[in-house]
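User: Can you predict the 3D structure for this chain?
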Amino acid sequence: MKAKQWNGPLALTTATVASALCLTAMPAWAQSSVTITGAMDMGLLNMSNYSRGIGYLPTSAHDTTDTRAKDGGLGSSNIGFKGVEDLGGGMKATFHLHGNINLANGTAGGPNSSATTSFFNQMSTVGLSGSFGEIKLGRQFSPAAWAMMHTDVRGMRYFGSTLTALVSMNAASKSWIGNNSNVAFGTIYDDNTLAYTAPVWNNLKLDFAYTFGEGRGKANSQQSVTALYTNGGLKLSALYYNGFGNNYGTAVALYTAAAGGNAAAGTRAAEAAGFSPTANTNRLYAAGALYSTGAWTIGGQYYAARNPSHAVMPGGSDSLDMLNFGLGWKPMPQLNLLAGYYYVRDNKNDGHKATQFVMGAEYLLSRRTWLYLQGAYVTNKGDNMAMSPMYATPVAADRNVRAYMAGVRHTF
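Assistant: Here is the predicted structure, written as structure tokens:
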């Protein structure tokens, strides 16, 4: 049997590893491989408004214009391991481990749904695939996030995209701090999840996911269904996401702090406001379309974020809409120019809204290395509107933002 080599500078194979660890060697029944994957992305960010508050909770406290080193300009820096074994008959066993790396300080991992840190915070799954589709178990990139990326012209980049607009909708709820991935509206990553991808049928790909409440029925559970259509240059996306108890822990923590640290009083106040592990506080609908022809790409999306239980922190929102449009142009194979406009409206607090206009240029030095330059202008109106053009970089509410970033990204 010939084993595949690891992808990257390490010229190890699974056969080599098995030989070296002879004490644990087992008979080889089928071909298997392990691949190292990842990306390193860092640049300099100049921004006119940095929040001095706690995470993503909207606040008026802010710093003035500053230039800072920033990890993740186009996307996160990360490292991962993907494995596949051919079981025969068209069936394969798979695993995927993937986690963030912060190039600015060398730390690894990130927050999970329970507000603790996981090394493999992006992906930790095991699964099976075959003619029936694919089943995966573990913490994973949510199907809803794949749908967001599918029709966003800026591809959910960390600077100025559907991702940063979605974060602003979560911040506007005033019930998400940012120290966990169990957000107020939709999620990017889900713990304890069973996901199923059906075989592609007539260019249509369907994904289903259920996040378990860990022995407590529907408490803290989430469900999602997404549909992705691809036919030539046309892409369509639709998603439905629903969750229970997403804001409960944050609401208890905030009310506890307001009660001078009295946890019992904080819990009573949160539950009196309608928060609980079974409250249906998280629902997200979205639809999008993208079309590419020649050097041009155009697309748009609509999002509706709702809190069916109407459990709301003071000054927060239980109903927001987002609309975006994007345009891309590749005048030459190495150069990619992208622009996007993102509009978020608070339906609960009259006059509260945010807009984001972003432009970016990306130049490929090779198939794996990009140079990029991007700029954005954001308006925020309302004391719970704090849209930031840069992911993982909160800004103060009710203030406009100018931002520029230049950097380099290398994938492997």
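Residues 162-172 form the longest helix (11 residues). The radius of gyration is 22 Å.
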